[in-house]
Amino acid sequence: MRNNILPGHNQPGDPIKGAQVLFEAFTKTGRCEGRSLPGRLALGRDSLAAIGGSIAREQEMLDSWKEIIASTDCDDVEA
Questions:
Q1: Among 32, 39, 54, 64, fewest CB within 10 Å belongs to which?
Q2: pTM for this structure?
Q3: Is the residue at 19 inside a domain?
């Protein structure tokens, strides 16, 4: 994580805002009240682009390999 910090303190994320969200998430208070904690809590606008790109690449892989992936099921078992 330390390597992701930009020199000159120009990183887009505000650590105080991030800490506040983490506190609310772990205590299920504030904006996180009534929400289930995700397995991976993304913080910052930059994470939206990074995760969105990852999801798009995974979807492309699934689409292009769908027939091969599905071909390994037993013939006598219905999905």
A1: 39
A2: 0.64
A3: yes
pLDDT exceeds cutoff 90 at 7? no
Angle formed at CA 53 by CA 48 and CA 55, multiple of 5 degrees: 95
CA 39 – CA 59 distance, rounded (Å): 20
Expressed as residue numbers, the domain containing 24 is 15-71
A 10 A CB-CB count for 21 gives 15
Alpha helix ranges (H) inside 30-73:
45-70
Q: What's the confidence (pLDDT) of residue 77?
A: 81
**Amino acid, single-letter form, for residue 31:** R
Asked whether residue 7 is assigned to any structural domain, the reply reads: no
* Each residue's pLDDT tens digit, 26-73: 999 999 999 999 999 999 999 999 999 999 999 999 999 999 999 998
First to last CA, the chain: 42
Neighbour count for residue 36 (Cβ, 10 Å): 7
